[in-house]
Structure to design on (229 residues):
């Protein structure tokens, strides 16, 4: 997975380098901003039971296209609506086991019993943003503040356990909620921008329990987002 991240970042910076200062004779007063994005995040799980804790590096990758639709003549405010793809991993000591009676959840008590244990989601995403920036037709370095929502459809969600002394266990986890949504905030200057996503929906469906306690877990993702074109 890391080689894909490196490749995405390389393409991003290549695009940024290509955005050199424009020729004054070719300035476009009807320009659009920030229509392609890629991002990396660190993922947190909020609202988990007391005995559940995160492990390893819970990372996320996202990329997509957002149609920029300016609202004023100087194009400093706009609406953005797009489509993208995200893959998000959540490492923890919460074990998911596929049985004839459904998926059972338990706590991995001893860290030495496993190398990695995670849930991974592949998500088709639809971001919606209210956008403000102080850009001009001839300036590519500017401040931006984009706030909005992101809607997602989880088309593949897996649970994966890698024990220390046995073969890995991996299966598609139907307990993962298919439709997810949350609030987004992107803020920064020029190349580097902080990205935050707070889920308003649970990671799991409503009928998922650990020792008779409902798993009301909400993802929080924080990282960097890069814009091209």
């Amino acid at each position: 997975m890391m080689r894909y991240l490196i490749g995405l970042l390389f393409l991003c910076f290549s695009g940024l380098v290509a955005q050199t200062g424009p020729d004054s004779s070719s300035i476009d007063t009807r320009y659009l901003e920030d229509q392609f994005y890629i991002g990396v995040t660190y993922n947190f799980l909020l609202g988990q039971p007391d005995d559940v804790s995160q492990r390893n590096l819970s990372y996320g990758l996202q990329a997509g296209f957002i149609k920029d639709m300016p609202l004023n003549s100087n194009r400093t405010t706009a609406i953005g609506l797009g489509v993208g793809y995200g893959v998000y991993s959540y490492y923890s000591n919460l074990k998911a086991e596929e049985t004839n009676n459904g998926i059972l959840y338990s706590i991995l008590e001893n860290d030495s019993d496993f190398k990695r244990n995670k849930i991974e989601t592949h998500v088709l995403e639809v971001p919606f943003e209210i956008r403000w920036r102080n850009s001009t037709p001839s300036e590519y370095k500017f401040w931006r503040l984009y706030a909005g929502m992101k809607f997602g459809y989880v088309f593949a969600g897996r649970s994966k356990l890698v024990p220390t002394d046995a073969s890995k266990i991996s299966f598609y986890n139907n307990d993962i909620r298919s439709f997810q949504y949350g609030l987004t905030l992107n803020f920064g200057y020029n190349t580097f921008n902080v990205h935050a996503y707070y889920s308003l929906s649970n990671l799991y469906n409503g009928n998922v329990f650990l020792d008779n306690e409902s798993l009301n877990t909400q993802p929080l993702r924080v990282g960097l987002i890069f814009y091209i074109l």
